[in-house]
Design a protein that fits this description.
The complex is a heterodimer of chains A (about 140) and B (about 150). With about 140 residues, chain A is mainly beta. Chain A has three helices and seven strands, in the order αββαββββαβ. Chain B is built from three helices and eight strands; from the N terminus they run H-E-E-E-E-H-E-H-E-E-E. The chains are: A mainly beta (about 140), B alpha+beta (about 150).
């Protein structure tokens, strides 16, 4: 009984632990984008499952970071903040590149790998990739602190 | 008490022949293969698992005899075009464990597959570079191809 009370007291006294705040450094290089694109972003997710980026199992949380696109381009490394539960153990990550663009009065956000790929439903000609140019719209892998 | 096996012999021969014929037919038939990639393929064509693959975006297709799928074939494709999230023929597809095994070889070869090589630099997790080049030089309309 005394032990049970002790455990309860400890639970009450202990303040809720703060979320873990992690980050991923994501190098980004975009160039010659359509003039309607003035902002881009990188969104990352962390998973407890090592295969999370593929099967979407064990999603823990994520975060985004914006960057300004000037003259159609940007080159730099973004430190993407990631917030997950205190006890969570991230084992894998996935990050994707997004572009934010104006379409008339609307401001739209789209995954670069979808709007720039002619085989995707979301394909938009203004975001066609330069023929033969390297493209990597998503990255994933094991997460190490 | 001894049972005479002779009457069954022709039946056994017929069954064997039928099985061999069916098996040979299955091996001769060509089946559609399909693979889904984690990111757009790094190449538009690749030879992997003894099969010629054509890739567009995140989808690769092929046609081959037998209809069998193997981790080895998947690994060869992953090494050639990037991590694979689905690897299937009309008859069978790799399970999650097999896919993980398939992509392990990609993770072990970072130079060939930068998308799976996020090693920490100076204690911080760093990912491969996200890269995208459009067709509007300097972000201008002038001279750009539509």
């Amino acid at each position: 009984m005394r032990r049970a009370i002790g455990v309860l007291a400890l639970a009450v006294i202990t303040a809720p632990a703060a979320a873990q705040e992690l980050s991923l450094d994501v190098p980004v290089r975009v160039a010659d984008l359509h003039p309607s694109v003035t902002v881009g972003s990188v969104t990352c997710a962390l998973f407890a499952d090592p295969d999370g980026p593929r099967n979407n199992l064990g999603y823990l949380g994520g975060g985004s970071k914006w960057f300004q696109v000037k003259g159609g381009g940007y080159a730099g490394t973004l430190s993407v903040p990631l917030k997950i539960a205190p006890q969570a153990v991230p084992r894998s990550y996935k990050c994707a590149l997004f572009i934010i663009f104006k379409d008339g009065d609307r401001t739209l956000t789209a995954a670069a790998s979808r709007v720039s790929d002619p085989n995707m439903m979301e394909y938009r000609p203004p975001f066609r990739r330069a023929p033969g140019s390297p493209f990597l719209g998503e990255v994933s892998g094991a997460f190490s602190r | 008490m001894r049972r005479d096996m002779r009457p069954h012999l022709p039946l056994a021969v017929i069954l064997c022949a039928a099985f061999a014929a069916a098996s040979s037919h299955a091996q001769d038939r060509r089946y559609a293969y399909e693979a889904e990639l984690a990111a757009a393929a790094t190449r538009s064509s690749a030879r992997a698992g003894g099969v010629d693959w054509s890739c567009t975006g995140t989808r690769c297709t092929a046609e081959a005899r037998g209809g069998a799928v193997s981790v080895r074939g998947c690994s060869e494709l992953a090494r050639a075009v990037g991590p694979v999230t689905r690897y299937a023929s009309e008859l069978r597809q790799l399970g999650e464990k097999e896919l993980a095994e398939c992509n392990q070889t990609v993770a072990a070869a970072p130079a060939k597959a930068p998308a799976l090589a996020p090693k920490a630099a100076a204690g911080r997790a760093v990912t491969p570079e996200l890269t995208y080049t459009g067709v509007w030089p300097g972000g201008r309309e002038t001279g750009a191809k539509q």
